[in-house]
Amino acid sequence: MSMTRAALLAATCLSAGAVRADVPNVAVDIAPVHSLVAQVMAGVGEPDLIVAPGASPHEYNLRPSEASALQDADLVIWIGTSLTPWLADSIDTLSPEARKLELLDLPETETLPIREGALFDAHDHGHGDAEEHEHGDDHAGHDHDDHDHEHADEHDHDHAEEHEHDDEHAGHDHSHDHGGVDPHAWLSPENANAWLTVIADTLSEADPENESTYRDNATAAQDRLETLTEDAGSVLDPVRDQEFIAFHDAYQYFETAFDVTAAGAISVSDASDPSPARVEEIRSRVADAGVACVLAEPQFNPGLVAAVAEGSEVRQGVVDPMGSSFEPGPDLYGQMMTAMVDALAECLGN
């Protein structure tokens, strides 16, 4: 090989290395959000997942590899303290210089309040919150191209005036609980749609070399999400008049998106152990109100579901709002949502 050719090859390798070095290291809290980020980063890089598949995000101990991913992160994307209060201190300690994107804090995110009590009123899943949040009207069917270019100016990503994440997050008081916000916001396809744009914007700011790829990937992911939502509606249409009991109160975003009705939840939003009185209240509802289905989750004790269903003819199913049976990566979000829709439809009698 000539010296000139060798020099050119070395320069090319160094240049490629420089481009790769500019790709930010991204750490993401849970698998469904990790999947959204992986879709946006496809062809450029791969985000690291913090909470292992199959684990509950409400309580978790970091493994060394996960702590290392946080320590190396240039960008941390997470739902927020309402879902993973234990993660706040780890981020502050291990990622003090990283940029933080707390999804529940975004003005694009449509949030719902935590429901009180074991039993829910019919369609008690946040339809009345439209005036308070107004995110659904603002973002449903929005033009992605216009939003892509306006987002940085309108929100500045770090939301310095509202939250001062980038400059002050290391000293941020994590005692706030977002006013009792239900943290399971990833189960809203509309939120996922909005987050894809924000993720692409944020990555483009950090890595302008790959901006077009991030934005094209986000648009393609949003198109897939639209198809998924339409298909899910068709599957659930025949069972909308049936009610189900959830293992824990994690599904009101899903209920709102697909117009299905939970009659109650065995456990509260953080999946803590229910009291005997709460379990008995749910058992009475199953026996007296003709509930069609009780849903378990693979992360939690199936004995509670069996206790609620005992002595009745109610059907039992399993749904997984974390997608723990699927390989983490870009396909997981769509697989998880499709599996949830199919499992609910089957349990309700379709």
How do you describe this structure in short?
This protein is of the alpha/beta class and 350 residues long. It has 14 helices and 8 strands. The strands form 2 sheets. The chain has a 4-stranded parallel beta sheet with strand order 2-1-3-4, sandwiched between helices.
Describe the structure.
By secondary structure, this protein is of the alpha/beta class. The chain has two domains: 23-107 and 137-232, Rossmann fold; 238-348, Rossmann fold. Helix content is 47%, strand content 10%. It is built from 14 helices and eight strands. It has helices at residues 3-22, 31-41, 64-72, 85-94, 130-133, 135-139, 144-155, 165-168, 189-206, 211-236, 252-258, 276-288, 302-309, 332-348; strands at residues 26-28, 48-49, 75-78, 99-102, 243-248, 261-267, 293-296, 315-318. The strands form two sheets. The protein has a four-stranded parallel β-sheet, sandwiched between helices. Helix 2 crosses helix 10. The chain is globular, with a radius of gyration of 22 Å. Mean pLDDT is 81; it is low at 1-19 and 126-179.
Task: Give keywords.
350 residues; alpha/beta; Rossmann fold; 2 domains; four-stranded parallel β-sheet; 47% helix; globular
Overall, the morphology is globular
Query: In CATH, what is the class of the largest domain?
Result: Alpha Beta
Order of helices and strands: HEHEHEHEHHHHHHEHEHEHEH
Q: State the oligomer.
A: single chain
The tally of structural domains comes to 2
Counted beta strands: 8
Give me the CATH fold name of the largest domain.
Rossmann fold
By CATH, the superfamily of the largest domain comes out as Nitrogenase molybdenum iron protein domain
What is the rounded distance between the termini? 68 Å
Q: Which strand-content bin applies to the residues?
A: 5-15%
Taking the sheet with the most strands, its summary is:
4 strands, parallel
Q: What's the CATH architecture of the largest domain?
A: 3-Layer(aba) Sandwich
Helix share, percent: 40-55%
Q: Show unreliable segments.
A: 1-19, 126-179
| Strand order of the biggest β-sheet | 2-1-3-4
- What structural class do helix, strand and pairing data support? alpha/beta
Overall pLDDT metric: 81
